[in-house]
Amino acid sequence: MTRSVYLRERELFKMIPVLVRSVEGSHPNWEKQDTIVSEKVSVPFKKEVAEFIFSHLREYDVIDDSKLAIEKFVDADQKGLYELKEILECANYFECQPFMNCIGFVIAKKLDTKSIEEIAEFFGVKAEPEGKWFDEDDGWLHPPAEVFQG
């Protein structure tokens, strides 16, 4: 059973570039005339993730980074890191950059309290032991080649 979401608000729809492109080919005047899109757009994410984006896209539209404050993103702040990661991936799929910046900000705030090992695990990388890589003579970092090996 397909779990569909219907977007009926033109202004919200316009904030999602990937959806706009999916409709423009068959309905070039969709912005100026009443349009019913019968083609389904398949989105490879959980319905709840997409719904979170649709319900917060307008309010999580901060473009000026100096105006970012965790208090502006209460619903996102209540989510866990892995839920936020899914939301960020879906927002990336939708190409909603200002929204992604806001979710990225919330993730960064949550990572502030985590250890290096927890952060590495979240990003799916190995935590490297601390090393003295900074060369004070030339001002460059010189990590060993092993750091760049996958």
TrEMBL record:
Signal peptide: none annotated. Transmembrane segments: none annotated. InterPro entries: SKP1-like_dim_sf (IPR036296), SKP1/BTB/POZ_sf (IPR011333). GO terms for biological process: ubiquitin-dependent protein catabolic process. This is SKP1 component dimerisation domain-containing protein.
